Amino acid sequence: MVPASTISNIAGPYADSIKVYSYYRLLLSLLFLGMMLAGISDKTLGTEHPQTFTITVFSYAGLSVALLIHLLWRRFTLGTTSLFLHLFIDIGCISLITYSSGGLSSGMGFLLIVTVATGSIAFTGRLSLLLAAVASITLLTQELVASFYFDSANDNLIPTGILGALLFVTALIFRQLNKRLRLAQESAQLQANEAAQLQQLNALIVQRMLTGIIVANRDGDIELINSSAVELLGGHQPQKTLGVGQHLRITPQLHQLYIRWQAYPWLKPKPFKNPAGSEIQASFASFNEQNLTRTLVFLEDNRSSAQRAQQLKLASLGQLTGSIAHEIRNPLGAISHAAQLLSEEPNPGAQQTKLSHIISKHANRLNQIIENVMQLSRQKKPELKKFNLKDTLDTFVEEFKDSQSGEVTIELSGEPVFVYFDASHLQQVLTNLLDNAIRYSKEATGEAWVGLRYGIEISTGHPFLFIEDHGEGVAKQHRDRIFEPFFTTSHTGTGLGLYISRELCEINYATLDYVDMEADSKCFRLGFAHPNRMLP
Predict the structure, then answer these.
(1) pLDDT digits over 422-433, tens only?
(2) Which CATH superfamily does the domain covering 382-536 fall into?
(3) Which end of the chain is more exposed for a tag (fewer CB within 10 A), N or C?
(4) What Rg value do the Cα atoms of the chain yield, rounded?
(5) Given this model, what pLDDT does residue 388 score?
(6) Which residues contact 388 (CB under 8 A, 6 or more apart)?
(7) Residue 232 vs residues 26, 94, 423: alpha-carbon distances, Å
(8) Which of 410, 487, 423, 421 is nearest to 452 (CA)?
(9) Is the dihedral of CA 94, 95, 96, 102 positive or negative?
(10) Number of neighbouring beta carbons within 10 Å of residue 423
(11) In terms of CATH architecture, what is 210-304?
């Protein structure tokens, strides 16, 4: 009984062998037919039984054409039973040609070796031996029939037995080769599958990396780009589709850095800003593969390195301000106490009262500066969480209004959006920005008005928050310095509010910039990190 695993489809791997054999069969049958029609075979083939030879040759040629058409239709992929039937037809036809040509002495019986070898290549298990047995029994049967029914000499029985043994040896040899070929093929297929899985894994890792990766050829055409690079370069916006096949010049800033790197590869590229306002650091590396020069481009959001630098800076600042505060607060307290005593003396003069007021005012201002610097140095590592910005703003606005002495108008607009930030740090940043907005709105219009507008940047998917006011805005000559420590245009300000706010944004992977939107609306833009791409 044939194993169930053997009776299956003879598919893909051995289709080439079946294809070659089918053309061999057609050529052989047409050769017999041509020799017969040309009269070449009259003295060599079909000498014993011409009529049987003629019928067999015509039948074999017709069957060869029909079987080839069948194989072409099946794309040389057959079931085990169908292929066995094909080979069985070959055995029958070749045996009849051998019989009609005088038996084994004609040499036609040796053609069965090719048929048995083909079966041993295509079949596994015992089917190859069964095919050899069928061929051997067919040869022996025709010799016995010729001997007993047609009174022919039986000198061919021993050679027929030897040929049968040779058929079995052929089946065993090719069967063993078949097993080795199958094992080698299964091993190669397994390795190919593992390589494909590793390739898919590598592609997935590259796509999910937070570092942007671009592979460009020598002409600057993009051959590979991951999702982080698309996001960092703002390639999600409809008017700027960034992907494979595009040229690096679609991002002019990166293309300029690429050209500069080609000319001066030893120079470190300068950071550039993406559409969301974040600083992007690009680095380039060249590699050769199959004589093709390609460039590997790495893109990193500077917010990660800035966050680490801020933590180191705050730690150093904390040690410095701790010792400074201790040395300044004692004499500052004595100065404040002396000014208070002077103001409490009976019948103080106008000049004395004025001087006492000046001393107290500037002592308080100096104390506020120390408090701000120490507040910055005491900042703990941010506890980043994902939360709904609208809910947080609603709560903050209510608490902020309650803390104000006068009436304040705060307008909220936007759709619900989730952000990735430390909630306490966000509250501190908003407090500083709203205090500034209210002060400058009052100076310009007499009304304490602030607008909070939030949403998601279409080009990058990053959330944003605009803090708007009706003030006159920051003068152009001061815009590059407003985030410097102790820089202020106000006589009462300390110059640390905006500096502290930006520092807090940077350690939360966010950005804070001044934006001059309209003639009557100046604002600060707070850009958050992507809420679904958690930064380390």
Answers:
(1) 888 898 889 889
(2) Histidine kinase-like ATPase, C-terminal domain (3.30.565.10)
(3) N
(4) 45
(5) 92
(6) 416, 417, 418
(7) 64, 73, 25
(8) 410
(9) positive
(10) 16
(11) 2-Layer Sandwich (3.30)
CB 303 within 8 A of CB 510: yes
Measured between alpha carbons, how far is 179 from 171 in angstroms, rounded to an integer? 12
pLDDT in tens, 313-345: 666 666 666 666 667 777 777 777 777 777 777
| Amino acid present at 108 | M
Mean pLDDT of 30-45: 81
Read off the pLDDT band of 7 (50, 70, 90): very low
Strand partners, 79: 9
**In terms of Cα–Cα distance, which of 429, 425, 430 is closest to 384?**
425
Q: Which residue has the higher pLDDT, 411 or 367?
A: 411
pLDDT above 70 covers a percentage of the chain that reads 81
Q: Which of 125, 239, 236, 140 is closest to 179 using CA atoms?
A: 125
| Cα end-to-end span (Å), the chain | 64
Q: Does the pLDDT of residue 14 top 60, yes or no?
A: yes
H/E stretch holding 402 reads helix 389-403
Mean pLDDT of 393-412: 87
* List of residues 6+ apart from 424 with CB closer than 8 A: 383
Whether the Cβ atoms of residue 236 and residue 459 lie closer than 8 Å to each other: yes
| pLDDT range class, residue 536, cuts 50, 70, 90 | very low
Strands 409-414 and 449-456: parallel
Tell me the pTM: 0.44
Residues contacting residue 221 through CB under 8 Å, at least 6 positions apart = 245, 246, 247, 248
State the DSSP H helix or E strand holding residue 385, giving kind and residue range, or none if neither.
strand 385-388
Domain boundaries, the chain: 9-192, 210-304, 382-536
